[in-house]
Give the backbone structure.
Amino acid sequence: MADLSNVSAEAIQQAMEWVKQAKDFAVEQAPLLAREIVIAGIARNTAQFLMSIVIIIVIVFCSYKFVANYKKIDDATDGLAALSALVLLIGGSMALLGLSMFAFDCIAGLCTAIFAPRLYVIEQLAQLVK
């Protein structure tokens, strides 16, 4: 019986040491983790913003080229060309609207990460809890 209580006391002592080491590790690593979360947020929001700007430019360029080529068509009765131009302009406008809102969201996230990094870290940690 004494051996069993010695073994359990040693196990409890070892578990307490592991908990203390884990706590110390978490306390030491918390500032580095927060810094990495902010840097990752800045990089992600910048990349998403730049990618949405590139896509917006491509959509505008393709729409411009298509409309410029459509104006060169001599046959005004070509319904397929008119329909495809209408679909491209409406679709391009909707894509531009969506990408513009996405770009503004990226800018908001980027500003939060740069100017309020503690708030950004709290928001990111809150998303992990959800």
User: Anything to note?
Assistant: The mean pLDDT is 79. The radius of gyration is 29 Å.
